[in-house]
Amino acid sequence: MFNIIIKDTYEEVSLEAFKALKKVISDKEKPVLGLATGSSPIGLYKNMQEDYKKGYSYKNCITFNLDEYIGLDKEHDQTYWTFMHKNLFDNLDIPEENIHIPSAVGKDLQELCSDYDKALNEYVIDIQVLGIGGNGHIGFNEPGTSFDTKTNIVELQERTRLDNARFFNSLDEVPTKAITMGISSIMQAKNILVIATGLNKADAVYGMIKGEISVDCPASVLQNHPSVTVVLDKDAASKL
Ligand code: GLP
After folding, report:
1. Cα separation of 125 and 65, whole Å?
2. Atom of ligand 1 nearest to the CA of 200
3. pTM for this one?
4. Does the CB atom of residue 164 touch ligand 1 within 6 A?
């Protein structure tokens, strides 16, 4: 079920997203957060950092990130590990051992996927933050992905690589593969918080909320989830 909130500016969208997250976590002793990368949640993360500066402690939080590129060293400036540390973890008090980001280096890739699932299986995510890809992907689960997937290795579609090329020097540098939490794990979160802004998200947002539930638009699976808050600006909501 969707609770849809539409605001004028990115700042207002971010504040609403923060309020929704805080409502879920504030009465929990050990909140489990599912976190996302991309431009959409940066404002939410700024609000969390402000909240910490004002005295709220995040030290009991346990976090799971959705995804990571394959083929970049962990400390490359475009890994999601770097993104999360720069945009959130470096300025909060969450202990490093409570932070889970799928690792894309080291062992055999299938082993990395099952390690991540093992860690995930020990917890229930209280709130999963999601952005949405222009093609309707969630995490890096591209159109065509079965709704039953657990953590898996994906081949990134051209649209996704083009959308994310803005963060790299050239399209050639954008990885072609990623590791991502699966759709079935995302659906197990107790609450989901989707943030989307801008006209380039309008079709995907329509597909998520009003389209047919189909693997062609992975976000449409959220129509089957009991508690989804969607925070949008007017452009992202323009096709609803
Ligand atoms: C990437 C991430 C997704 C994210 C999407 C949208 O592909 N893997 O998790 O939701 O981008 O990003 P943005 O918020 O920058 O539009």
Report:
1. 11
2. 16
3. 0.96
4. yes
- For ligand 1, is residue 68 a contact (CB within 6 Å)? no
Is the model's pLDDT at 45 over the cut of 80?
A: yes
Residue with tokens 């929990």: 28
Instruction: Tell me the residue type at 36.
Output: A
CA–CA separation, 138 and 149 (whole Å): 12
* Index of the ligand 1 atom closest to the CA of residue 40: 14
Asked if 193 contacts 148 with a C-beta cutoff of 8 angstroms, the reply is no
Q: Which helix (H) or strand (E) holds 25?
A: helix 10-25
- pLDDT tens across 74-119, in order? 889 999 999 999 999 999 999 999 999 998 787 799 999 999 999 9
Burial 48-71 (b: 16+ CB within 10 A, else e): bbebbeeeeebeebbbbbbbbbbe
User: What contacts 177, CB < 8 A, 6 or more positions away?
Assistant: 69, 70, 71, 153, 154, 155, 156
Per-residue pLDDT tens over the stretch 181-201: 999 999 999 999 999 999 999
Task: Please indicate whether residue 160, judged by its CB atom, sits closer than 6 Å to ligand 1.
Answer: yes
